[in-house]
TrEMBL record:
One of its GO terms (biological process) is chorismate metabolic process. The keyword Ligase does not apply. SUPFAM superfamilies: Aldolase, Chorismate mutase II. Keywords: Transferase. It comes from Sinomicrobium oceani. This is chorismate mutase. PANTHER family: PHOSPHO-2-DEHYDRO-3-DEOXYHEPTONATE ALDOLASE (PTHR43018), PROTEIN AROA(G) (PTHR43018:SF1).
Length: 360
């Protein structure tokens, strides 16, 4: 899979002067709904009309898609609007039906990417296809598994390829539905800079009011496009209502996004600088989040010390931490002076938290 430039030919051939946009409802619900959304999106930046036909649900009993009938609705939408179409496939039977209905872009979902058996089945069914095939990251943060999906498709003589970053599942509660773990996408981008990289802010956030910020971060990191779930009546959507936006909102999002273009040396410099700063912003946000978690643990320690009437400052423990952090910092190229200043500040904040609890 050395020639990633070959993989992005399909994207370059679209001749877009803006990021690629794939949009449409989480699920195709009715013919009227699909056609309404298609007509609302046809004169916008959207190139591919997406709709879930088969919906893999975490637990049974929820709406699992209308099935093959929805493919006819996508076909009709394409005939009426000229938009290209896209849907998710999870097995060989889905592939066969999607190809029979001339769907232009197929993607493999996060739950399917985790299984090499499923990906291989889909790759075998698609062997030699000229359709665009995108692979969503697996639900767990495993870059090798993600790349493995692309390699299996490439080995089946499928050259129009790309990846979708939709975030990673976690047991821990955060503001995201799926934690972005941007560093994995950045690492993939560094390994294969010409492999089209699409962001799915709908699934990362799970909330429509966060979509713009995540989409902007993706563009700052030089992503090639966005997949945004769009519904004419999102509050009453049959699946994932909270993360879908209206066509009008999508148009406004695309207007408000800041998009850098590489047209000369200065623009290339600014683009690279912007990417690096975006990476720093992501890491800084992670640092604040981690420090917040650390202080919550300090609060719990303070509560225990209060119950046992133990002093806040434990010098032996503090010296052990400091010595270990200095050594680990040196391995990461960080000076002893910096480590001392940083951990003294962290330690002082921890003491302040615990003293507040003891005095309460």
């Amino acid at each position: 899979m050395e020639n990633s430039k070959e993989m992005r030919g399909w994207l370059d051939n679209l001749g877009l002067d803006h990021p690629l946009v794939i949009a449409g409802p989480c699920s195709a619900e009715t013919e009227e709904q699909v056609l309404k959304i298609a007509h609302d999106l046809k004169d916008t930046d959207v190139t591919y009309l997406r709709a879930g036909i088969w919906k893999p649900r975490t637990r049974p009993g929820n709406f699992e898609g209308v099935g093959a009938l929805g493919l006819k609705w996508l076909q009709k939408a394409k005939e009426e609007t000229g938009m290209l179409t896209a849907t998710e496939v999870a097995n060989a039977a889905h592939v066969k039906l999607a190809l029979e209905h001339d769907i232009d872009l197929l993607w493999i979902g996060a739950r399917s990417t985790v299984s090499p058996f499923i990906v291989q089945e889909i790759a075998d069914a698609l062997k030699g296809t000229d359709k665009v095939v995108l692979v969503k990251n697996p639900v767990n943060p495993d870059l090798s598994l993600w790349l493995g999906g692309i390699e299996r498709l490439y080995s089946s003589d499928i050259k129009k390829l790309g990846v979708i970053h939709r975030g990673f599942s976690t047991y821990e509660k955060t503001k995201y539905r799926n934690i972005p773990e941007w560093q994995l996408a950045i690492e993939l981008q560094n390994k294969f800079p010409d492999l089209p990289l699409i962001c799915d802010p709908s699934h990362i956030t799970g909330k429509r009011d966060m979509i713009f910020d995540v989409a902007q971060t993706a563009l700052d990191l030089n992503f090639d496009g966005l997949m945004i779930e769009t519904h004419n009546d999102p509050d009453n959507a049959w699946s994932d209502a909270a993360q879908q936006v209206t066509p009008d909102t999508l148009v406004q999002i695309m207007k408000d996004l800041k998009i850098r273009k590489e047209s000369d040396a200065e623009a290339e410099y600014n683009n690279k600088l912007g990417m690096l700063r975006a990476q720093i912003d992501i890491i800084d946000n992670g640092l604040i989040d981690t420090l917040g978690k650390r202080m919550k643990i300090s609060d719990e320690i303070g509560t225990l010390k209060k119950q046992k009437n133990v002093a806040v400052l434990q010098s032996k423990r503090w010296n052990e931490i400091l010595g270990r952090m200095i050594l680990e910092g040196q391995e990461k190229g960080l000076s002893e002076e910096f480590i001392l200043k940083m951990f003294k500040a962290i330690h002082q904040e921890s003491i302040n938290h615990q003293e507040k609890i003891l005095k309460a």
